Amino acid sequence: MALLNFLGAIQQVTGSCYLIETYDKKNILLECGMQQGGDSENNRDDNGNEPRSAFAFNPETIDAVVISHAHIDHSGMLPRLVSEGFRGPIYATDATCELMELMLLDSAHIQEKDAEWENRWRARKGRKPIKPMYVSADAARVMKQLVAVSYETLTKVVPDVKVSFHDAGHIIGSAIVKLEFHEPNDSVRTLVFSGDLGGGCSPLMKDPAVLKHADVLMLESTYGDRDHRCSEDTLDELAEILRQAHEDGGNVLIPAFSVGRTQDILFHLGRFYQEGRLPQHTVYLDSPMAIRANEIYMRHREDFDKTNSQALTESGFQNAKDWLPILKLTPTPEESMAINKVTSGAIIVAGSGMCTGGRIIHHFKHNLWRENCHMIFTGFQARGTTGRAIVDGAKTVRVFREDIMVGLKVHTLGGFSAHAGQSQLIEWASNFANKPELHLIHGEVEKMKILQDEFKQRLDWDVNIPELGDRVAL
Ligand SMILES: [Zn+2]
Question: How many CB atoms neighbour CB 395 within 10 A?
Fold first, then answer.
């Protein structure tokens, strides 16, 4: 009998990680996500020494890894796993493998830079330097261990265990993971892991695939407490803000995550352009990472939702510029800095989504204090981030050791979530007619409890909220 260990994204939304031990002692790691928003110091002691392992298990004993999608909170610790001795295959969909190359190398770069910065003040205090969590060479090594698998294809992971990926509709390549365990008595046990479930508001992504059978089901619960509004109203609101911004004569800043949200925003802006509802003269995509993510989205456009991709295809869509002719890509620092001279009529889309770094910060200096500019938040802003401070009405924010007044008009649009809302989660799970053993993961505990109550009331289904370190038999 196989055992499932809950090691991460337990009663919280980041650090997705589950270990499965099979009956014949093979170890499969489902997800290898980085914990975000916390203190990256927490895996080091005060002298800068790292504990022996960043994991609750020995990476050398892992036989194979399965990843649902490329977001860092699901894949970000893979380079570390490899640096600690994991040498087996990593299974993921084609698009996920391409995105991971982009995102893990970027993440390694951030780890290196952070450690460098940290070591500068450590040196001044006479403390020992720290090592980065991982380096670019580790991320490069991950690429050699990737095994790309198409959707809906049964693939052997270890003897007697097969995996298949099913479109989760969250970001390109995102998957619901189904694992089949063939036991010695010829019985088959099935574990379905929802991954991050879409069906939210992304215009490019399909609804999540419907699966009907599982013995054990793991369901994400990011929006376990509520349904979110995503409708034409949100888009009308966006169009109205852009009209107002044009009238005010300033620029529009849109901080956005490079993978997923940026492509959705560009899709909407393209539609506005074609409908004559986009008064600005240029949309700058000022993010090297988002520019490369766009290319990966393009390569996998057969996975787009057909309703919208129809319009894209008819536009002769080969790249994002066919859809949005006023799009200007600014990959180099020089091109990015040239935007500083543009004082009106521009929309600037840049990362990071929560304004914790990235090029969006550079645009603060030239736009944040100006009353005729606008800033539009389309994604969740976590506590402690600059984005959250601005949303909460901060009068000034500190950017590169300088306090800059928040003079521009701030808008928060809630209708762009890439996650399923409460009703969609319950509806998707209700396709499993046999009511499998259900574990809620990837959510804050208060929200999980609300979802747990809903399952009980609507479907008379008793669902479990695992604790960190819990272990269940499959
Ligand atoms: Zn995700």
Answer: 9
